Amino acid sequence: MDPSVDTWDLSSPLISLWINRFYIYLGFAVSISLWICLQIVSKTQDRSLQEKSVPRAPQDLMTNGYVSLQEKDIFVSGVKIFYGSQTGTAKVTSKNVCVFLVATYTDGRPTESAEWFCKWLEEASSDFRFGKSYLKGMRYAVFGLGNSAYASHFNKVGKNVDKWLWMLGAHRVMSRGEGDCDVVKSKHGSIEADFRAWKTKFISQLQALQKGERKKSCGGHCKKGKCESHQHGSEEREEGSHEQDELHHKDTEEEEPFESSSEEEFGGEDRQSLNSIVDVEDLGKIMDHVKKEKREKEQQEEKSGLFRNMGRNEDGERRAMITPALREALTKQGYQLIGSHSGVKLCRWTKSMLRGRGGCYKHTFYGIESHRCMETTPSLACANKCVFCWRHHTNPVGTEWRWKMDQPEMILKEAVENHQNMIKQFKGVPGVKAERFEEGMTVKHCALSLVGEPIMYPEINRFLKLLHQCKISSFLVTNAQFPAEIRNLKPVTQLYVSVDASTKESLKKIDRPLFKDFWQRFLDSLKALAAKQQRTVYRLTLVKAWNVDELQAYAQLVFLGNPDFIEVKGVTYCGESSASSLTMAHVPWHEEVVQFVRELVDLIPDYEIACEHEHSNCLLIAHKKFKIGGEWWTWIDYNRFQELIQEYEDSGGSKTFSAKDYMARTPHWALFGANERGFDPKDTRHQRKNKSKAISGC
Question: Torsion over CA of 173, 175, 176 and 182, rounded to 10 degrees?
Fold first, then answer.
């Protein structure tokens, strides 16, 4: 057989396809054309269905080419949500109703994610080129997030966004909601609960709008029980909608005292004047009316604000600091709560020393026994919202004591009992030393630095006296915002002042204090510290790129307060938090802390580096008066202190004593430059393979 014939037979199908390729191309083209036509038809049908679902407004409701939103039925097919938070991003879900969730940040400014938008909105609202109908047809709702402790700019961003949108002609579908981080003043107990309550009402309103129902009913208050909308020929409502509108009307009335609207802020006539021509002769009357309404509103807010600031419930009694929501949050963090405003928690260094794995930096610097130290506070409230707070701002804030108060005897008794119960849980745990377990059941030291501002507690002096009567030494930490309380404070074993920054700007950025005169309070607190005769300490927390370059200013503050010791510690990163922008990049290396301390000591000739605790990334600078005969005496003779404080109490405060009266020699291993780097050689250092975040400390 001819091989050329076989080859031709095998390739004949391919040749056939090639000959008929025109018909194949034509088939593909027809198929694609049909698919495109089907897509166009389906989209056209969807658009027509949407147009049919919204009834056309009657011709007589047309004004200046626009349909009045108040005069036509409103339908909703979706929601567009914008998040303006420090850690959030903008998220879009659908159309028609825009919801703005905006937080108020430092000094009443918007967060970084909302800064540009707020600036544009503010400029547009006051720019005549945009006009008062620029956003006409847009429907919106606003929920603000803030903290009422900052009374001067509480939810300022939310109020402004609501106002600016309204000034540009947008239509509010619901009153503005306001979430409050201050659990004491929060209407529903927490900011999350505030949002849930507002969200429930908002969803109910959306459902009503989706059905084409109006927000407000007649209610029978207008002439002959008929609304103007009915007189203009609006469509009849469906059966049963009147009852639902009455319920919604009641809902709206409940919101009014708590959630102001832009109409309320500017007055109803002012809103009309935005879109209508006003005679110059009538302008004075309109402005007088607006000013009168504004004055009345401010007086009403002042009265209601005074009542809220007192922190009293409906019966006129002071409210408890620990609300149910706060109790739940703190309990999850391991707190043992006491009464209505106190708490105790087991420090991780207490657990470490029970196992013989080393003590905290206070053990290295001052000779405390970490396994016998109780970390507590008689006040969970604080006057600052520091960026490095290891409690993630779950505690309440305030500038004065406005809660009901527990007696110091009860607080101390329950604090010791709760501490002992937590120690008991380590009985039989592998690695726990029996002798230290027994010693740990007897509290010898009290670190009043758990959380909050202990010095805010009105009976702090009585509480300290009870501690000393029980032979418990006292280490009290304050944030330098209460100078009068520092001056009135009775002697403590060691008094700390947190010096987190050395300039007004950086202190405001890092500590975020509630007081408007925070800087003057800060300086007055340092001056009050200088007048103390007992041991005083500056506590410096270094935040990389924020406060490590202020050496000269720190030196000036040292001269102002003249502390006995200066603790310099690198900031501890406690994980991500919506309340702080702190990251691991802000945590300095130990070598960087050492370099900072060396440079600072060069500027303060009366001080030298005394001790080091590498594990805590911390160093101690001590006044040279504690260096006697070439040896450092930074440790504390606790028995001698108890004798001195007893003599002070017996003499009615006339027999005073100084820091040098109860000092003790510092061991060699605790000194700066020692090979141990501050680790007690009696213990065994334990290196964990999988390091987990630790948010406890003292």
Answer: -140
Phi/psi at 100 (5° precision): -115, 115
- Distance (Å, rounded) from C-alpha 670 to C-alpha 682? 12
**Domain parsing of the chain, residue ranges:** 97-208, 324-670
Q: For 324-670, CATH number?
A: 3.20.20.70
| DSSP structure string for 281-348 | HHHHHHHHHHHHHHHHHHHHHHHHHHHHHTTB-TTSPBPPSS-HHHHHHHHHTT-EEETTTEEEE--H
The predicted structure's pLDDT at residue 240: 41
* Interstrand relation of 336-338 and 177-180 (parallel, antiparallel or unpaired): unpaired
Please determine whether the domains at 97-208 and 324-670 fall in the same fold group of CATH. Answer: no
Q: What is the pLDDT of residues 120-146, one digit of tens each?
A: 888 888 877 777 888 888 888 999 988
List C-alpha distances in Å: 549 to 506, 534, 545, 555: 11, 31, 8, 12
Q: How many degrees, rounded to 5, is the angle at CA 622 between CA 616 and CA 627?
A: 125
pLDDT of residue 70: 39
* Cβ partners under 8 Å of residue 285, min gap 6: none
Spatial distance between the Cα atoms of 36 and 29, rounded to a whole number of angstroms? 11
DSSP 180: E
pLDDT (tens digit, 9 = 90+) per residue, 150-174? 777 788 998 999 988 988 888 888 8
Which residue's entry shows tokens 């406060």?
547
CB atoms within 10 A of CB 670: 26
Which segments in the chain show pLDDT lower than 70?
Answer: 1-11, 46-96, 183-184, 212-317, 388, 390-395, 574-582, 688-698
As a whole number of angstroms, the distance between CA 667 and CA 678 comes to 10
Strand partners, 210: none
Encoding tokens for residue 537?
Answer: 């300490």
Tell me the β-bridge partners of 104: 110
CATH number of the domain located at residue range(s) 97-208 in this protein: 3.40.50.360
Q: Which residues contact 85 (CB under 8 A, 6 or more apart)?
A: 101, 102, 103, 111, 113, 114, 145, 578
Q: What is the DSSP string of 116-176?
A: HHHHHHHHHHT-TTT-TTTTTT-EEEEEEEE-TTSGGGTTHHHHHHHHHHHHTT-EESSPP
Among residues 611, 644, 673, which one has the least CA distance to residue 362?
611
613 - beta bridge partners?
618
Q: How far apart are CA 348 and CA 426, in angstroms?
A: 13
Residues 179 and 193: beta-carbon distance below 8 Å: no
